[in-house]
Amino acid sequence: MSTMGKHLQRLALWLFTVLAVSGVLAAGAEKLPDDIEWLTNDSDPVYASPQAVRGGTLHLALLSFPLTFRVVGPDSNSSFRSAILGNQLSLIGIHPNTENIVPELATHWAFGKDKKTMYFKLNPKARWSDGHPVTAGDFAYTLTFMRSKKIIAPWYNDYYSKEIDRVIVYDDHTLAVVSTKAQPDLHLKLGISPTPRHFYKKLGDDFVRRYNWKIAPNTGPYQMGKFRKGKYIFFNRKKDWWAADLRYFKHRFNVDRVKYTVIRDINIQWEYFKKARLDVFGLTMPKYWHEKTKTAVFRKGYVNRIWFFNDTQQPSLGLWLNMDRDIFKDRNVRYAFAHAMNIKKVIEEVLRNDYFRLENGYVGYGPYSNTKIRARRFDLKKVEYYMKKAGWHRGPDGIWTKNGRRFSVEVTYSFEGHTPRLVVLKEEARKAGIELRLQKLDPSAAYKKVLEKKHDVAWMGWSTSLRPHFWEHFHSVNAHKPQTNNITNTDDPEMDRLIDAYRNSLDEKERIALSRKIQQRIHEIGAYVPTFMVPYVRQAYWRWWRLPKPPGTRHSDDLFAPFNSATGGLFWFDRQRYEETMAARKAGRTFPPVTIIDRTYQRKPANP
Protein backbone atom coordinates (compact mmCIF):
# COMPACT_ATOMS: atom_id res chain seq x y z
CA MET A 1 0.00 0.00 0.00
CA SER A 2 1.31 3.44 -0.87
CA THR A 3 2.14 6.03 1.75
CA MET A 4 -0.87 8.06 0.60
CA GLY A 5 -3.08 4.96 0.85
CA LYS A 6 -1.94 4.24 4.38
CA HIS A 7 -2.54 7.89 5.27
CA LEU A 8 -6.10 7.76 3.93
CA GLN A 9 -6.73 4.50 5.74
CA ARG A 10 -5.56 6.02 9.03
CA LEU A 11 -7.69 9.10 8.33
CA ALA A 12 -10.76 6.95 7.70
CA LEU A 13 -10.14 4.97 10.88
CA TRP A 14 -9.72 8.20 12.84
CA LEU A 15 -12.94 9.63 11.40
CA PHE A 16 -14.85 6.45 12.23
CA THR A 17 -13.53 6.58 15.80
CA VAL A 18 -14.48 10.24 16.23
CA LEU A 19 -18.00 9.60 14.96
CA ALA A 20 -18.42 6.55 17.16
CA VAL A 21 -17.22 8.37 20.27
CA SER A 22 -19.53 11.31 19.57
CA GLY A 23 -22.52 8.97 19.29
CA VAL A 24 -22.91 9.31 15.54
CA LEU A 25 -22.06 6.66 12.97
CA ALA A 26 -21.90 7.89 9.39
CA ALA A 27 -23.82 6.43 6.46
CA GLY A 28 -22.35 3.13 5.38
CA ALA A 29 -20.42 2.59 8.61
CA GLU A 30 -22.88 -0.13 9.64
CA LYS A 31 -25.14 -2.39 7.61
CA LEU A 32 -28.90 -2.37 8.15
CA PRO A 33 -29.96 -5.76 9.54
CA ASP A 34 -31.66 -8.04 7.03
CA ASP A 35 -34.37 -9.33 9.35
CA ILE A 36 -36.02 -6.02 10.24
CA GLU A 37 -39.80 -6.16 10.62
CA TRP A 38 -40.99 -2.74 9.56
CA LEU A 39 -44.15 -1.47 11.29
CA THR A 40 -46.50 1.42 10.70
CA ASN A 41 -49.94 2.52 11.87
CA ASP A 42 -52.55 3.62 9.37
CA SER A 43 -55.54 2.06 11.10
CA ASP A 44 -56.08 3.82 14.45
CA PRO A 45 -59.16 6.06 14.52
CA VAL A 46 -58.81 9.64 13.38
CA TYR A 47 -60.17 12.27 15.74
CA ALA A 48 -60.29 15.46 13.67
CA SER A 49 -63.47 16.55 11.90
CA PRO A 50 -63.73 16.37 8.08
CA GLN A 51 -66.03 19.40 8.39
CA ALA A 52 -63.09 21.56 9.46
CA VAL A 53 -62.13 24.41 7.14
CA ARG A 54 -59.09 26.61 7.01
CA GLY A 55 -58.84 30.31 7.72
CA GLY A 56 -59.03 32.93 10.43
CA THR A 57 -56.77 34.14 13.21
CA LEU A 58 -56.84 32.78 16.74
CA HIS A 59 -56.16 35.47 19.34
CA LEU A 60 -54.61 34.26 22.60
CA ALA A 61 -52.93 35.97 25.55
CA LEU A 62 -49.63 35.66 27.39
CA LEU A 63 -49.12 36.90 30.93
CA SER A 64 -45.50 37.74 30.13
CA PHE A 65 -43.15 37.79 27.19
CA PRO A 66 -40.71 34.86 27.08
CA LEU A 67 -37.12 35.52 28.15
CA THR A 68 -35.79 33.67 25.10
CA PHE A 69 -36.85 31.82 21.95
CA ARG A 70 -34.30 29.09 22.67
CA VAL A 71 -35.76 25.78 23.87
CA VAL A 72 -32.60 24.78 25.77
CA GLY A 73 -30.27 26.68 28.04
CA PRO A 74 -30.86 29.40 30.65
CA ASP A 75 -34.41 30.78 30.99
CA SER A 76 -35.75 28.53 28.21
CA ASN A 77 -38.06 26.28 30.23
CA SER A 78 -41.04 28.63 30.39
CA SER A 79 -44.65 27.91 29.46
CA PHE A 80 -44.18 29.58 26.05
CA ARG A 81 -41.62 26.89 25.21
CA SER A 82 -44.52 24.51 24.56
CA ALA A 83 -45.69 26.71 21.67
CA ILE A 84 -42.29 26.44 20.01
CA LEU A 85 -41.88 22.72 20.67
CA GLY A 86 -45.48 22.13 19.62
CA ASN A 87 -44.32 22.87 16.09
CA GLN A 88 -41.44 20.44 16.13
CA LEU A 89 -42.30 16.88 15.16
CA SER A 90 -40.54 13.75 16.36
CA LEU A 91 -39.79 10.51 14.58
CA ILE A 92 -43.01 9.01 15.94
CA GLY A 93 -45.93 10.17 18.04
CA ILE A 94 -48.47 8.68 20.43
CA HIS A 95 -52.14 8.45 19.54
CA PRO A 96 -53.98 10.45 22.25
CA ASN A 97 -56.81 7.94 22.59
CA THR A 98 -55.24 4.53 21.97
CA GLU A 99 -51.68 5.43 23.08
CA ASN A 100 -50.37 3.42 20.11
CA ILE A 101 -47.40 4.61 18.07
CA VAL A 102 -48.32 6.75 15.05
CA PRO A 103 -46.12 8.15 12.25
CA GLU A 104 -44.71 11.66 12.40
CA LEU A 105 -41.40 12.31 10.63
CA ALA A 106 -40.94 8.57 10.19
CA THR A 107 -43.33 6.51 8.11
CA HIS A 108 -42.12 3.15 9.49
CA TRP A 109 -40.27 1.87 12.53
CA ALA A 110 -38.86 -1.40 13.82
CA PHE A 111 -37.55 -2.78 17.10
CA GLY A 112 -34.10 -4.34 17.35
CA LYS A 113 -33.67 -7.75 18.93
CA ASP A 114 -31.33 -6.22 21.52
CA LYS A 115 -34.31 -4.25 22.91
CA LYS A 116 -32.11 -1.15 22.84
CA THR A 117 -32.43 -0.13 19.21
CA MET A 118 -35.21 1.29 17.05
CA TYR A 119 -34.95 1.69 13.30
CA PHE A 120 -36.77 4.38 11.35
CA LYS A 121 -37.64 5.22 7.75
CA LEU A 122 -38.07 8.96 7.27
CA ASN A 123 -40.81 10.45 5.14
CA PRO A 124 -38.91 11.75 2.09
CA LYS A 125 -41.35 14.67 1.92
CA ALA A 126 -40.35 15.97 5.37
CA ARG A 127 -39.05 19.52 5.24
CA TRP A 128 -37.79 22.20 7.58
CA SER A 129 -39.69 25.47 7.46
CA ASP A 130 -36.84 27.05 5.46
CA GLY A 131 -37.22 24.39 2.75
CA HIS A 132 -34.25 22.19 3.67
CA PRO A 133 -35.06 18.46 3.60
CA VAL A 134 -35.10 16.61 6.91
CA THR A 135 -32.45 13.92 6.82
CA ALA A 136 -31.10 11.27 9.12
CA GLY A 137 -28.12 13.54 9.73
CA ASP A 138 -30.39 16.00 11.55
CA PHE A 139 -31.16 13.34 14.14
CA ALA A 140 -27.50 12.50 14.49
CA TYR A 141 -26.85 16.19 15.04
CA THR A 142 -29.38 16.17 17.89
CA LEU A 143 -26.88 14.16 19.92
CA THR A 144 -24.00 16.50 19.07
CA PHE A 145 -26.15 19.50 19.99
CA MET A 146 -27.67 18.15 23.18
CA ARG A 147 -24.35 16.84 24.49
CA SER A 148 -22.57 20.15 23.96
CA LYS A 149 -21.59 22.08 27.07
CA LYS A 150 -22.02 25.27 25.03
CA ILE A 151 -25.83 25.11 25.29
CA ILE A 152 -25.61 25.29 29.12
CA ALA A 153 -28.33 22.70 29.63
CA PRO A 154 -27.13 20.08 32.16
CA TRP A 155 -30.31 18.01 32.02
CA TYR A 156 -30.04 17.58 28.25
CA ASN A 157 -26.29 17.00 28.44
CA ASP A 158 -26.92 14.20 30.91
CA TYR A 159 -29.94 12.66 29.22
CA TYR A 160 -28.46 12.50 25.73
CA SER A 161 -25.22 11.10 27.10
CA LYS A 162 -26.52 8.58 29.63
CA GLU A 163 -29.81 7.57 28.02
CA ILE A 164 -29.12 7.76 24.27
CA ASP A 165 -26.05 5.83 23.16
CA ARG A 166 -25.83 6.76 19.49
CA VAL A 167 -27.60 7.47 16.21
CA ILE A 168 -26.67 5.33 13.21
CA VAL A 169 -27.18 6.89 9.78
CA TYR A 170 -27.67 4.31 7.01
CA ASP A 171 -28.69 6.80 4.34
CA ASP A 172 -30.51 10.15 4.19
CA HIS A 173 -33.85 8.53 5.05
CA THR A 174 -32.91 5.54 7.19
CA LEU A 175 -31.49 5.63 10.69
CA ALA A 176 -31.38 3.86 14.03
CA VAL A 177 -31.45 5.33 17.51
CA VAL A 178 -29.77 3.24 20.18
CA SER A 179 -30.49 3.42 23.90
CA THR A 180 -27.78 2.87 26.47
CA LYS A 181 -29.84 0.01 27.86
CA ALA A 182 -32.77 -2.23 27.09
CA GLN A 183 -36.02 -1.20 28.69
CA PRO A 184 -39.78 -1.34 28.31
CA ASP A 185 -41.48 1.54 26.49
CA LEU A 186 -38.43 1.99 24.30
CA HIS A 187 -40.49 4.04 21.84
CA LEU A 188 -41.08 6.72 24.47
CA LYS A 189 -37.34 7.36 24.61
CA LEU A 190 -36.06 6.85 21.08
CA GLY A 191 -38.62 8.75 19.01
CA ILE A 192 -36.38 11.82 19.18
CA SER A 193 -36.72 15.11 17.30
CA PRO A 194 -34.25 16.42 14.72
CA THR A 195 -32.06 19.49 15.17
CA PRO A 196 -31.37 21.67 12.10
CA ARG A 197 -27.61 21.36 11.70
CA HIS A 198 -27.69 23.85 8.81
CA PHE A 199 -29.10 26.47 11.20
CA TYR A 200 -26.81 25.94 14.19
CA LYS A 201 -23.64 26.41 12.20
CA LYS A 202 -21.50 27.13 15.22
CA LEU A 203 -21.84 26.01 18.82
CA GLY A 204 -19.53 28.44 20.53
CA ASP A 205 -19.23 30.02 23.94
CA ASP A 206 -21.69 32.68 22.76
CA PHE A 207 -24.49 30.17 22.02
CA VAL A 208 -26.86 31.55 24.67
CA ARG A 209 -26.53 35.13 23.47
CA ARG A 210 -26.25 34.36 19.76
CA TYR A 211 -29.46 32.32 19.59
CA ASN A 212 -31.48 34.03 22.31
CA TRP A 213 -33.93 35.66 19.88
CA LYS A 214 -33.28 33.71 16.69
CA ILE A 215 -36.21 31.76 15.25
CA ALA A 216 -35.09 28.22 14.48
CA PRO A 217 -36.67 26.34 11.57
CA ASN A 218 -39.06 23.56 12.50
CA THR A 219 -40.94 20.65 10.95
CA GLY A 220 -44.49 21.32 12.22
CA PRO A 221 -47.50 23.18 10.83
CA TYR A 222 -46.66 26.73 12.03
CA GLN A 223 -43.61 28.95 12.10
CA MET A 224 -43.04 31.86 14.42
CA GLY A 225 -43.22 35.11 12.48
CA LYS A 226 -43.46 38.77 13.37
CA PHE A 227 -42.99 39.70 17.02
CA ARG A 228 -42.42 42.73 19.19
CA LYS A 229 -40.65 42.13 22.47
CA GLY A 230 -42.96 42.61 25.41
CA LYS A 231 -46.00 43.01 23.15
CA TYR A 232 -46.95 40.16 20.81
CA ILE A 233 -45.83 37.12 18.84
CA PHE A 234 -47.37 35.75 15.63
CA PHE A 235 -47.30 32.17 14.33
CA ASN A 236 -48.19 31.62 10.67
CA ARG A 237 -49.51 28.39 9.18
CA LYS A 238 -47.26 27.08 6.43
CA LYS A 239 -49.05 27.29 3.09
CA ASP A 240 -47.62 24.04 1.76
CA TRP A 241 -46.87 22.12 4.93
CA TRP A 242 -45.47 18.77 3.86
CA ALA A 243 -47.55 16.75 6.40
CA ALA A 244 -50.93 18.45 5.95
CA ASP A 245 -52.58 15.44 4.31
CA LEU A 246 -51.13 12.68 6.48
CA ARG A 247 -53.76 10.49 8.19
CA TYR A 248 -53.38 11.84 11.73
CA PHE A 249 -52.78 15.47 10.70
CA LYS A 250 -55.55 15.86 8.13
CA HIS A 251 -58.30 18.38 9.00
CA ARG A 252 -56.14 19.79 11.79
CA PHE A 253 -54.13 22.99 12.33
CA ASN A 254 -56.72 24.97 10.44
CA VAL A 255 -56.26 28.63 11.41
CA ASP A 256 -54.04 30.79 9.22
CA ARG A 257 -52.45 32.66 12.11
CA VAL A 258 -52.14 32.54 15.87
CA LYS A 259 -51.45 35.80 17.69
CA TYR A 260 -50.21 35.84 21.27
CA THR A 261 -50.66 39.23 22.93
CA VAL A 262 -48.95 40.04 26.21
CA ILE A 263 -51.63 41.06 28.72
CA ARG A 264 -50.07 40.95 32.16
CA ASP A 265 -53.25 40.81 34.22
CA ILE A 266 -55.82 38.02 34.03
CA ASN A 267 -58.63 40.45 34.81
CA ILE A 268 -57.68 42.61 31.86
CA GLN A 269 -57.51 39.48 29.71
CA TRP A 270 -61.10 38.77 30.74
CA GLU A 271 -62.16 42.24 29.60
CA TYR A 272 -60.36 41.74 26.29
CA PHE A 273 -62.17 38.43 25.86
CA LYS A 274 -65.63 39.92 26.49
CA LYS A 275 -64.87 42.48 23.78
CA ALA A 276 -63.87 39.70 21.33
CA ARG A 277 -60.26 40.85 21.29
CA LEU A 278 -59.35 37.39 22.58
CA ASP A 279 -61.09 34.28 21.26
CA VAL A 280 -60.76 31.83 24.14
CA PHE A 281 -60.68 32.13 27.92
CA GLY A 282 -60.06 29.43 30.50
CA LEU A 283 -62.88 28.87 33.01
CA THR A 284 -61.14 26.35 35.23
CA MET A 285 -61.29 28.75 38.17
CA PRO A 286 -64.75 28.42 39.77
CA LYS A 287 -65.40 32.15 40.08
CA TYR A 288 -65.26 32.42 36.31
CA TRP A 289 -67.42 29.38 35.57
CA HIS A 290 -70.02 30.05 38.26
CA GLU A 291 -70.07 33.85 38.52
CA LYS A 292 -68.27 35.81 35.86
CA THR A 293 -70.01 34.02 33.00
CA LYS A 294 -73.28 35.52 34.25
CA THR A 295 -72.70 38.38 31.87
CA ALA A 296 -74.24 39.67 28.66
CA VAL A 297 -72.09 37.92 26.06
CA PHE A 298 -72.99 34.55 27.61
CA ARG A 299 -76.68 35.32 28.22
CA LYS A 300 -77.07 36.50 24.66
CA GLY A 301 -75.46 33.36 23.28
CA TYR A 302 -72.47 35.08 21.67
CA VAL A 303 -70.04 33.05 23.76
CA ASN A 304 -70.24 29.31 24.51
CA ARG A 305 -69.07 27.44 27.60
CA ILE A 306 -67.67 23.92 27.60
CA TRP A 307 -66.77 21.52 30.44
CA PHE A 308 -64.80 18.62 28.96
CA PHE A 309 -63.60 15.76 31.17
CA ASN A 310 -60.32 14.11 30.18
CA ASP A 311 -58.50 11.02 31.44
CA THR A 312 -54.83 11.88 31.62
CA GLN A 313 -51.82 12.33 33.90
CA GLN A 314 -52.24 15.13 36.40
CA PRO A 315 -49.71 17.98 36.75
CA SER A 316 -47.84 18.07 40.06
CA LEU A 317 -49.45 21.21 41.46
CA GLY A 318 -48.44 22.21 44.95
CA LEU A 319 -46.03 23.87 47.35
CA TRP A 320 -42.34 23.12 46.81
CA LEU A 321 -40.11 23.71 49.84
CA ASN A 322 -36.50 24.75 49.31
CA MET A 323 -34.47 22.51 51.62
CA ASP A 324 -31.39 24.67 51.15
CA ARG A 325 -33.18 27.16 53.39
CA ASP A 326 -32.19 26.51 57.00
CA ILE A 327 -35.80 26.48 58.16
CA PHE A 328 -36.66 23.49 55.96
CA LYS A 329 -33.62 21.34 56.68
CA ASP A 330 -35.51 19.64 59.53
CA ARG A 331 -38.02 17.05 58.30
CA ASN A 332 -40.23 17.67 61.33
CA VAL A 333 -40.63 21.29 60.25
CA ARG A 334 -41.51 20.22 56.72
CA TYR A 335 -44.16 17.83 58.06
CA ALA A 336 -45.54 20.59 60.27
CA PHE A 337 -45.73 22.92 57.29
CA ALA A 338 -47.72 20.34 55.31
CA HIS A 339 -50.16 19.79 58.18
CA ALA A 340 -50.65 23.57 58.43
CA MET A 341 -51.95 23.79 54.85
CA ASN A 342 -55.74 23.61 54.87
CA ILE A 343 -56.19 22.43 51.29
CA LYS A 344 -59.65 21.04 52.00
CA LYS A 345 -60.94 24.45 53.06
CA VAL A 346 -59.60 26.01 49.88
CA ILE A 347 -61.35 23.33 47.79
CA GLU A 348 -64.64 23.80 49.64
CA GLU A 349 -64.75 27.58 50.08
CA VAL A 350 -62.73 29.00 47.20
CA LEU A 351 -62.94 26.28 44.56
CA ARG A 352 -66.59 25.29 45.21
CA ASN A 353 -65.67 21.60 45.33
CA ASP A 354 -64.92 21.71 41.61
CA TYR A 355 -61.34 20.61 42.25
CA PHE A 356 -60.07 17.39 43.78
CA ARG A 357 -57.29 16.78 46.27
CA LEU A 358 -54.03 15.67 44.70
CA GLU A 359 -52.55 12.91 46.85
CA ASN A 360 -49.05 12.97 45.35
CA GLY A 361 -47.25 14.34 42.32
CA TYR A 362 -47.76 11.26 40.11
CA VAL A 363 -51.49 10.65 39.77
CA GLY A 364 -52.92 9.19 36.57
CA TYR A 365 -49.96 7.06 35.47
CA GLY A 366 -51.77 3.74 35.72
CA PRO A 367 -49.75 1.03 37.52
CA TYR A 368 -46.82 3.45 37.93
CA SER A 369 -48.84 5.56 40.40
CA ASN A 370 -48.67 4.79 44.11
CA THR A 371 -52.34 5.01 45.03
CA LYS A 372 -51.69 4.17 48.69
CA ILE A 373 -50.15 7.58 49.41
CA ARG A 374 -52.40 10.17 50.98
CA ALA A 375 -51.27 13.76 51.25
CA ARG A 376 -50.92 15.15 54.78
CA ARG A 377 -54.13 16.80 55.92
CA PHE A 378 -54.63 19.97 57.93
CA ASP A 379 -54.12 19.01 61.58
CA LEU A 380 -53.22 21.52 64.29
CA LYS A 381 -52.27 18.81 66.79
CA LYS A 382 -49.79 17.29 64.38
CA VAL A 383 -48.32 20.72 63.64
CA GLU A 384 -47.75 21.21 67.35
CA TYR A 385 -46.28 17.71 67.73
CA TYR A 386 -43.74 18.11 64.94
CA MET A 387 -42.78 21.69 65.84
CA LYS A 388 -42.12 20.80 69.48
CA LYS A 389 -40.20 17.73 68.35
CA ALA A 390 -38.01 20.08 66.30
CA GLY A 391 -37.41 22.28 69.35
CA TRP A 392 -39.65 25.24 68.47
CA HIS A 393 -42.04 27.11 70.77
CA ARG A 394 -44.84 29.60 70.26
CA GLY A 395 -43.76 33.24 70.33
CA PRO A 396 -45.76 36.12 71.84
CA ASP A 397 -47.57 36.65 68.50
CA GLY A 398 -48.48 32.97 68.21
CA ILE A 399 -45.88 32.21 65.53
CA TRP A 400 -43.45 29.37 66.18
CA THR A 401 -40.00 30.57 67.21
CA LYS A 402 -36.57 29.02 67.66
CA ASN A 403 -33.29 30.76 68.53
CA GLY A 404 -34.86 34.12 67.83
CA ARG A 405 -36.19 33.10 64.41
CA ARG A 406 -39.90 33.12 63.58
CA PHE A 407 -41.49 30.51 61.31
CA SER A 408 -42.11 33.04 58.56
CA VAL A 409 -41.58 32.01 54.93
CA GLU A 410 -42.16 33.59 51.56
CA VAL A 411 -44.44 31.88 49.05
CA THR A 412 -43.59 32.81 45.46
CA TYR A 413 -46.33 32.58 42.84
CA SER A 414 -47.21 34.21 39.53
CA PHE A 415 -50.94 34.11 38.85
CA GLU A 416 -53.26 36.70 40.37
CA GLY A 417 -56.20 34.30 40.17
CA HIS A 418 -54.53 32.08 42.74
CA THR A 419 -54.34 34.83 45.36
CA PRO A 420 -57.68 33.91 47.04
CA ARG A 421 -56.47 30.33 47.50
CA LEU A 422 -53.22 31.46 49.05
CA VAL A 423 -54.99 33.98 51.28
CA VAL A 424 -57.05 31.14 52.82
CA LEU A 425 -53.90 29.04 53.27
CA LYS A 426 -52.19 32.02 54.87
CA GLU A 427 -55.05 32.59 57.34
CA GLU A 428 -55.27 28.91 58.25
CA ALA A 429 -51.50 28.57 58.56
CA ARG A 430 -51.44 31.42 61.04
CA LYS A 431 -53.77 29.40 63.27
CA ALA A 432 -51.08 26.74 63.15
CA GLY A 433 -48.38 29.26 64.09
CA ILE A 434 -46.84 29.67 60.63
CA GLU A 435 -46.63 32.96 58.77
CA LEU A 436 -46.86 32.89 54.98
CA ARG A 437 -45.66 36.00 53.16
CA LEU A 438 -47.23 35.98 49.70
CA GLN A 439 -45.03 37.22 46.87
CA LYS A 440 -46.68 37.53 43.46
CA LEU A 441 -44.26 38.07 40.58
CA ASP A 442 -44.49 38.29 36.83
CA PRO A 443 -44.52 34.66 35.53
CA SER A 444 -41.10 34.93 33.92
CA ALA A 445 -39.62 36.57 37.03
CA ALA A 446 -41.21 33.99 39.32
CA TYR A 447 -39.96 31.10 37.23
CA LYS A 448 -36.48 32.58 37.05
CA LYS A 449 -36.36 33.04 40.83
CA VAL A 450 -37.45 29.48 41.46
CA LEU A 451 -35.06 27.97 38.92
CA GLU A 452 -32.23 29.92 40.52
CA LYS A 453 -33.28 28.34 43.85
CA LYS A 454 -33.82 31.72 45.52
CA HIS A 455 -37.28 30.88 46.85
CA ASP A 456 -38.48 29.69 50.26
CA VAL A 457 -41.67 28.05 48.96
CA ALA A 458 -42.73 27.86 45.30
CA TRP A 459 -46.42 27.63 44.43
CA MET A 460 -46.37 25.96 41.02
CA GLY A 461 -46.79 22.76 39.06
CA TRP A 462 -44.88 20.67 36.54
CA SER A 463 -46.22 19.27 33.30
CA THR A 464 -46.57 15.55 32.67
CA SER A 465 -45.40 12.79 30.35
CA LEU A 466 -46.64 9.27 29.63
CA ARG A 467 -44.34 7.80 32.29
CA PRO A 468 -43.19 9.33 35.60
CA HIS A 469 -39.91 11.26 35.50
CA PHE A 470 -37.99 11.57 38.76
CA TRP A 471 -34.34 12.27 37.98
CA GLU A 472 -34.66 15.93 37.04
CA HIS A 473 -36.81 16.78 40.06
CA PHE A 474 -35.40 14.67 42.88
CA HIS A 475 -31.88 13.38 42.13
CA SER A 476 -29.05 15.02 44.07
CA VAL A 477 -27.03 15.67 40.90
CA ASN A 478 -29.56 18.45 40.20
CA ALA A 479 -29.54 19.88 43.74
CA HIS A 480 -27.77 23.00 45.02
CA LYS A 481 -27.29 24.52 41.58
CA PRO A 482 -29.36 26.92 39.44
CA GLN A 483 -31.22 26.13 36.24
CA THR A 484 -32.28 22.60 37.17
CA ASN A 485 -35.76 21.32 38.03
CA ASN A 486 -34.79 20.00 41.48
CA ILE A 487 -36.32 23.07 43.09
CA THR A 488 -36.62 21.41 46.51
CA ASN A 489 -32.86 20.71 46.43
CA THR A 490 -33.57 17.10 47.38
CA ASP A 491 -30.25 15.47 48.21
CA ASP A 492 -31.01 12.03 49.60
CA PRO A 493 -28.82 8.92 49.06
CA GLU A 494 -31.77 6.53 49.25
CA MET A 495 -33.66 8.62 46.70
CA ASP A 496 -30.64 8.61 44.39
CA ARG A 497 -30.35 4.83 44.68
CA LEU A 498 -34.00 4.32 43.79
CA ILE A 499 -33.93 6.79 40.89
CA ASP A 500 -30.75 5.29 39.46
CA ALA A 501 -32.28 1.82 39.70
CA TYR A 502 -35.46 3.08 38.01
CA ARG A 503 -33.47 4.61 35.15
CA ASN A 504 -31.35 1.49 34.73
CA SER A 505 -34.08 -1.11 35.08
CA LEU A 506 -34.63 -3.55 32.22
CA ASP A 507 -37.88 -4.94 33.59
CA GLU A 508 -41.24 -3.19 33.44
CA LYS A 509 -42.54 -4.78 36.66
CA GLU A 510 -39.41 -3.68 38.47
CA ARG A 511 -39.77 -0.13 37.12
CA ILE A 512 -43.37 0.00 38.34
CA ALA A 513 -42.31 -1.16 41.81
CA LEU A 514 -39.45 1.35 41.89
CA SER A 515 -41.75 4.14 40.73
CA ARG A 516 -44.06 3.49 43.66
CA LYS A 517 -41.13 3.35 46.10
CA ILE A 518 -39.77 6.67 44.79
CA GLN A 519 -43.17 8.29 45.29
CA GLN A 520 -43.24 6.93 48.83
CA ARG A 521 -39.77 8.35 49.44
CA ILE A 522 -40.88 11.76 48.12
CA HIS A 523 -43.75 11.61 50.58
CA GLU A 524 -41.40 10.66 53.43
CA ILE A 525 -38.99 13.51 52.68
CA GLY A 526 -41.91 15.92 52.74
CA ALA A 527 -40.51 18.79 50.67
CA TYR A 528 -43.45 18.70 48.26
CA VAL A 529 -46.99 19.43 49.43
CA PRO A 530 -49.52 18.34 46.76
CA THR A 531 -52.62 20.51 46.45
CA PHE A 532 -55.24 20.10 43.72
CA MET A 533 -55.97 18.23 40.53
CA VAL A 534 -58.37 19.19 37.78
CA PRO A 535 -59.29 16.20 35.56
CA TYR A 536 -61.09 18.32 33.00
CA VAL A 537 -60.95 21.37 30.75
CA ARG A 538 -63.35 24.30 31.12
CA GLN A 539 -63.24 27.05 28.54
CA ALA A 540 -65.26 29.90 27.07
CA TYR A 541 -65.06 30.61 23.35
CA TRP A 542 -66.82 32.87 20.87
CA ARG A 543 -69.46 30.94 18.95
CA TRP A 544 -67.68 31.27 15.60
CA TRP A 545 -65.19 28.67 16.74
CA ARG A 546 -66.15 25.05 16.05
CA LEU A 547 -65.02 21.79 17.65
CA PRO A 548 -65.20 18.15 16.51
CA LYS A 549 -67.33 15.46 18.18
CA PRO A 550 -66.18 14.62 20.77
CA PRO A 551 -64.56 18.02 21.22
CA GLY A 552 -61.23 16.64 22.42
CA THR A 553 -59.24 13.49 23.09
CA ARG A 554 -58.54 11.47 26.25
CA HIS A 555 -55.38 13.49 26.78
CA SER A 556 -56.62 16.95 25.77
CA ASP A 557 -55.87 19.59 28.38
CA ASP A 558 -56.77 22.53 26.13
CA LEU A 559 -59.45 22.29 23.45
CA PHE A 560 -58.02 25.33 21.69
CA ALA A 561 -54.35 24.41 21.77
CA PRO A 562 -53.21 25.61 18.35
CA PHE A 563 -50.11 23.38 18.31
CA ASN A 564 -49.10 19.91 19.61
CA SER A 565 -48.87 17.00 17.20
CA ALA A 566 -51.05 14.72 19.35
CA THR A 567 -53.93 16.85 20.60
CA GLY A 568 -53.61 20.33 19.07
CA GLY A 569 -55.37 22.08 16.22
CA LEU A 570 -58.72 20.29 16.28
CA PHE A 571 -60.84 23.47 16.16
CA TRP A 572 -61.66 25.71 13.19
CA PHE A 573 -63.00 29.16 12.35
CA ASP A 574 -66.55 29.43 10.96
CA ARG A 575 -66.69 32.66 8.96
CA GLN A 576 -70.45 32.47 8.43
CA ARG A 577 -71.03 32.26 12.19
CA TYR A 578 -68.58 35.10 12.70
CA GLU A 579 -70.47 37.40 10.37
CA GLU A 580 -73.81 36.22 11.81
CA THR A 581 -72.64 36.94 15.36
CA MET A 582 -71.20 40.35 14.54
CA ALA A 583 -74.42 41.34 12.77
CA ALA A 584 -76.50 40.10 15.71
CA ARG A 585 -74.43 42.08 18.22
CA LYS A 586 -74.86 45.22 16.14
CA ALA A 587 -78.61 44.69 15.77
CA GLY A 588 -79.20 43.52 19.34
CA ARG A 589 -80.32 40.03 18.31
CA THR A 590 -79.49 37.05 20.53
CA PHE A 591 -78.95 33.30 20.34
CA PRO A 592 -79.81 30.58 22.88
CA PRO A 593 -77.06 30.29 25.52
CA VAL A 594 -74.84 27.24 25.05
CA THR A 595 -73.16 25.19 27.79
CA ILE A 596 -71.62 21.87 26.75
CA ILE A 597 -70.71 19.20 29.34
CA ASP A 598 -68.88 16.31 27.72
CA ARG A 599 -68.16 13.18 29.81
CA THR A 600 -66.86 10.95 27.01
CA TYR A 601 -63.59 10.24 28.81
CA GLN A 602 -64.54 10.95 32.41
CA ARG A 603 -63.01 8.81 35.13
CA LYS A 604 -64.30 9.91 38.51
CA PRO A 605 -61.49 10.58 41.00
CA ALA A 606 -61.79 10.39 44.76
CA ASN A 607 -62.53 13.67 46.55
CA PRO A 608 -60.78 14.71 49.78
Structure overview:
The chain has 608 residues and is of the alpha+beta class. The chain has three domains: 19-46 and 70-210, Dipeptide-binding Protein, domain 1 (Alpha-Beta Complex), CATH 3.90.76.10; 285-312 and 535-608, no CATH class; 318-514, Dipeptide-binding Protein, domain 3. The protein is built from 18 helices and 27 strands. Helix 10 (331-339) packs antiparallel against helix 12 (380-389), helix 11 (343-350) packs across helix 13 (419-431) and helix 16 (493-504) packs antiparallel against helix 17.
Low-confidence stretches: 1-22
Please report the first level of CATH classification, the CATH class of the largest domain: Alpha Beta
Structural domains: how many: 3
Number of helix segments?
Answer: 18
Secondary-structure-based class equals: alpha+beta
Task: Look up the CATH topology of the largest domain.
Answer: Dipeptide-binding Protein, domain 3
- Provide the β-strand percentage band: 15-25%
